[in-house]
Every structure is written in structure tokens, then in C-alpha cells.
Amino acid sequence: MVNRAKRVSMAGVLAWAAAMLAAPAVLGGCTLAGGMIESYRQKSTRPVPAEYVGLSGKSIAVVVSADRSIEADFPGLTSTLIERINQRLIDNASPSHYFQGRELVHYLTNNPQLLFRPRSELAQDLGVQRLIVIELQEFRLNDPGNQYLWDGVAVGRVSVVEADGPLPDDYAFVRRIAVTFPDQKGIGPEQYGRDVVSSALLVRFIDRASWPFYEHQEPYYPKY
User: Fold this and answer.
1) Partner of 1 at 20 to 30 A CA spacing, among 20, 23, 71, 92?
2) Model-level pTM?
3) What is the CA radius of gyration of the chain?
4) Residue 1 — pLDDT band, cuts 50, 70, 90?
5) 165, 193 Cβ separation under 8 angstroms
6) Helix H or strand E segment including 154
7) How many alpha carbons lie under 13 Å from residue 50 in its C-beta half-sphere?
8) Domain spans of the chain?
9) Which of 39-48, 125-134, 207-216 shows the lowest mean pLDDT across its residues?
10) 65 three-state secondary structure
């Protein structure tokens, strides 16, 4: 009986020792798996659903307004925004009818008074059911107090007018946009030229102004 008890006790000790030896391997495996998942997330993207799906099956037009000082510093910026955001929505938001970008820019350029009319009337003038309004409030490459380092900022608002809805003078969707570039401080013309900074800032603003209207891919840890 004594020998049997000793054997049972010894078996328990051995089982406990084996479990203790295996624990670091299990924990190490969990750590390794967690590290692999984190590495994957840092290099990959995830799907993000649309915030507003009301462009699908509707006729659309994009208009952009900006302060004259912005247009003076960046000639043609509003036209570029109209063309590129308009094309993004054509390609991804499934509208039924739309203007081609250059056609829309040409029409608005030759009828500048339209931008000062109520949004519902502008939508009617353009003959569309959905008017996407981009108000560019700030677009700069430097901090006003430091012209030697890049500190790009683009701020604005994207809104939607539902011209065929019960409240055509109210915005059915509103989203504020604010993006920056570069991501690091202390970057100057020696690292990035002016065109690089303005182009990167423009791309980021276009992304954020377009993404609310269709499912898209974003990094797990977005920079903007």
C-alpha cells in the first residue's frame, strides 16, 4: 500500500512538472501568434462600410467651394477636387446618371453665380437628385509662423443635398474632414518638395471626402 501511494504521489509530481515545463511553450506560442497578427495588421487593410449609401441609383453632381485666398495660392485646386471626387463616386458609388468631371467643371466655371444660390436650386439647375457639396475651408503647406518646415493641413466639410427628398434645403449627410501631411515633424524642402507635399495632402483630402459614400479598404492603423 505504501509503495502504491508513493507511486501515485510520484505520478502527480511528474504530471505537475510536465505541465510547468509546457506552460512557457504555450505562452510563447500565444505571444508569437499575437505578434504575427499585429505584424499582419500593420501591413494590411480592413473593409470599412459606407456611411451614406443614398447615391446608389441616383443622379449626382459634385461642387466645390473654397476661399479666394486658397484659389490664389493653389490655382485650379477646386477644379481638380471636382474632377477627382466626381470620378471616385462614379466608379464606386453606383450612381444612375452623372456629369463627366471636365463637363461639370466647365459648366460651373461658366456659371459661377450658381454657387451662390440655395443648394436645392443648384441641384435643380444641374438636374440631379443628389448634390455633393465640398466646402474647402483651409489648405496650406506651412504653419503661418514657420515657412521653413512643412506642416500641411487641409480642412473642409462634405455634405449631401437630397433634391428629391422631403427637405431639399437641409443637408441629409454632413461630415467634417481634416487631414495633415507630413506625418513626422521637422520635415523641410530638403526631404520633400512643395509638389510632393501638396499632392499628398490633396490625395488624403480626396480619400476622406469620397470614402463615406462607398465601402472601401483602410489600413488597420490609418495615418489620416
Assistant:
1) 20
2) 0.81
3) 28
4) very low
5) no
6) strand 146-162
7) 14
8) 2-43, 48-219
9) 39-48
10) strand
